[in-house]
Write a structure and sequence with these properties.
Number of strands: 4
Distance between the termini: 17 Å
Largest sheet: 2 strands, antiparallel
Shape: globular
Number of helices: 2
Strand order of the largest sheet: 1-2
Strand content: 25-35%
Structural class: alpha+beta
Order of helices and strands: HEEHEE
């Protein structure tokens, strides 16, 4: 549920308020169009939990974020 304008860097910067971010990715289709979702990996599990508590439902670039553990990553 990301804005199609959100870059990986903007996503990473936004999530840094919750801890040390190892990596952030915004998913793209084979043609390069953004899919409207991404993943953020933290160095510490407690920071990921903090991000879920603090940022779930928070707006980023006009879109309300859904922040949860990605069991597929």
């Amino acid at each position: 549920n990301l804005s199609f304008d959100t870059s990986w860097r903007e996503l990473k910067d936004h999530f840094r308020q919750c801890g040390d971010v190892e990596r952030a990715d915004v998913m793209e289709a084979p043609d390069g169009r953004k899919k409207g979702f991404g993943t953020v990996r933290f160095y510490k599990a407690k920071d990921a939990s903090n991000a879920i508590q603090r940022l779930n439902g928070v707006e980023l670039q006009g879109r309300c974020l859904e922040v949860r553990i990605d069991h597929k990553a």
